[in-house]
Amino acid sequence: MSAIYQQARPTTFDQVIGQEHVKEVLVASLTRGRVGHAYLFSGPRGVGKTTSARLLAMAVNCEADDVATRPCGTCASCRLVRSNSHPDVIELDAASNNSVDDIREIRDQVRLSAIRGGMRVWVLDEAHMLSKAAANALLKTLEEPPPQLVFILATTEPEKLPPTILSRCQHFRFRRLSEAEIAGKLQQLCARAEVDAEDEALTLVARAADGAMRDAESLLERLLASGKTITQQDAEDALGLPPQTRLQALATALATGDTNLLLGEAAGLYRDGFAPRSLAEQLQQTLRDALYTRVGLGDGFRLELPETDLLRVIHALDDEAERFIRRDDLFSLEVALIKALNALRYNAPSDAVAELSEGRAPKQPAAETGQGPATPPPQPADPRSRTFDPNQSAPPAQNRPAQNTPSPPQRPAPQPQGSWRDVQRQAPSHLKSFLMPAQSQVDGQTIKLHYPQGKKFHLNQLLQREAEFIDLIGAVFGDGYTIEMSLEGSGEVVRKKSLRGLARPR
User: Fold this and answer.
1) Pick from 350, 341, 281: which is nearest to 315 by CA?
2) Residues 392, 394, 399: CA angle, nearest 5 degrees
3) Confidence of residue 279 (pLDDT cuts 50, 70, 90)
4) Cα 23 to Cα 17, 51, 81, distances in angstroms
5) Measured at the alpha carbon of residue 324, what is the angle toward residues 318 and 330, in degrees to the nearest 5?
6) 313: helix, coil or strand?
7) What is the DSSP string of 2-54?
8) Rg of the Cα atoms in the chain
C-alpha cells in the first residue's frame, strides 16, 4: 500500500494547494500551446515541485479533447504518468546520475522519437547535485533540444546551479505553504479517511511541517493509523511536543511574575523528559502566538502584556539560545527563564538585564524623556572657595593638606564599554564558532574564558587568531583589562594577555 502523500498527489492543477503564481503561468502556456523546452522548479522540500513537473508531463501528453481541461488525470496517458510507467516521461535523480557519462547517455536518449507519439519529458530531480562537468555537458541539449522534448529540473538549492544552466530555463520559485493551507488539506484527508480531527491537532501538525505539505501528510499518516479521533494530545505525543496547556502556564507565569509557578512548571516538564532547549523554543512559539493575537494577526492564545513587553521577553529568551549549546540542562533553562522574567520586571531590554546579571549597573540615558537635560552630578567643592568660620576650630595639622602641594589626580577604574554578549554579537562568524563553548566571567578587571576538556580544539583555534580576538575584546570593553584563557584539566591559565594600550575605539 502506498504512503498517504502518494495517494494524495493532485491529478489536476486545480487540486494543487497554493503556488498560484506557478499554476497560472503553466496553465496559460498550455492553453495557448506555448510550452517551453526547459523549466527549473526551485523551492523548499515538499511544496509541490515534483508534483507540478508530473502534472506538466501529464498535460503535454493528455488525450483529452479540450485543451483547457488538460491534464484530465483519467485518460490512459495520464494514468501511466501517475504510475511512473509512461515510456516517454523519464524521472531521474541527479544525486545518483550526476556524472558526465550519465549526461552523455541522456543526450543520446533524448534524440529518440516519442513511443506514444506525444512529447518526451525528462524530469531531473535534485539538479543541484550535478557535477560541474555534467552541467556543462547538459548545456547544449538545454539550449537546442530536439523537437517535442521538455526538460524539467527540480532543486532545493538553485544557487548551486551554474548561471549558464539558469539562463536556459524558465525559472519558477515555489514558496512554503501557510499553516492554514496545510491544515485545510489535512482536513480533507481526514474526511476521506472518515476520521475526525480537532482543529488544534491539525494546526500543530501544520506548524511542525514548516511549510512542507509532504511532511505534514507523513505526520498525519501516523495519527490516522489508530482510526480514532485525532486530539491535540495525540498530535503532541506523536510530535514529541510539550503540552500547549503547560507551555501557556509557563507564559502566564512569566507575564504575572509568578516565580514559584515558573520554576516549578519548568522543572516538571524537564522531569517528564522534554529537552530544555526544545522547551525554550516552544515557549517562544507560545509567546509569539500571544504577540500575533495582541497585534491582530491571530485569535489564539492571549496574554495580558503590552506589545513592547512581549517583544522584550521573546528577545530575552532568544538571547539565551547559545547557552543550550554548552549545557542543555535544567539549570540552563532556569537561567533563561529568570533573565526573561528580569527583562519584564526591570522593564529593560535584554542587554541591560545582562549587565545586571554581570554585576554592573545598566547604562542610563542622558536625560529622561520629556524631563529636559539631565542634572549634572554634584562636583566636589573647591577648597580655595571655602570661607573661614572663627567659631569653628581648625582641623588638626595632620589632617590639613600641605600648602601649595596639589593632590595627585586619581586614575579612575576603567569602566567596561560593553558586555560579553556584545563580544559574541560583534564577533565574525569564524571567531564566534570558537567562542561558543567557552564559559565566560568578568571578574573586576579580568575577563576569564574557561573551555571544557573536550573543547581543546576550539581554544587552540582561538589562540591562533589571538590578535584579531584581542582587538575585538578591546573594542568592546575598552582599555585596562586582562584576558585569561584556561582549559579544564590543565590546572593553569593557558594564555594571559593585557589589553592596556591595545584597545581600539568602538
Assistant:
1) 350
2) 135
3) very high
4) 10, 12, 19
5) 105
6) helix
7) --HHHHT--SSGGG--S-HHHHHHHHHHHHTT---SEEEEE-STTSSHHHHHH
8) 33
- The separation between the first and the last C-alpha atoms of the chain, rounded to the nearest angstrom, is 65
pLDDT at 372: 43
- Cα angle, residue 28 at apex, residues 25 and 32 outer, rounded to 5°: 140
Integer Cα distance of 435 and 462 in angstroms: 8
Question: What grid cell was written down for 179?
Answer: 499553516
Report which residue type is found at 116.
R
User: Around Cβ 378, how many Cβ atoms within 10 Å?
Assistant: 6
Cα 35 from Cα 32, distance rounded (Å): 8
Quick check: 464 and 427 in contact, CB under 8 A?
A: no
* pTM score over 0.85: no
Strand partners, 455: none
Tell me the C-alpha distance between 492 and 485, whole Å.
9
The verdict on whether omega for the bond into residue 362 sits within 30 degrees of 0, i.e. cis, is: no
**Could you tell me the sign of the dihedral formed by the alpha carbons of 81, 84, 90, 91, in that order?**
positive
Q: Identify whether the C-beta of residue 158 lies closer than 8 Å to the C-beta of residue 174.
A: no
The mean pLDDT value of the chain amounts to: 82
- 61 closest CA partner among 71, 51, 53, 49: 71
Contact yes or no for 64/70 (Cβ under 8 A):
yes
The whole-angstrom separation of Cα 103 and Cα 19 is 30
Ranges assigned E (strand) in 89-226:
89-93, 120-125, 149-155, 170-173
Quick: pLDDT tens for 97-150. Answer: 878 888 888 888 888 888 888 899 999 999 999 888 888 888 888 888 888 899
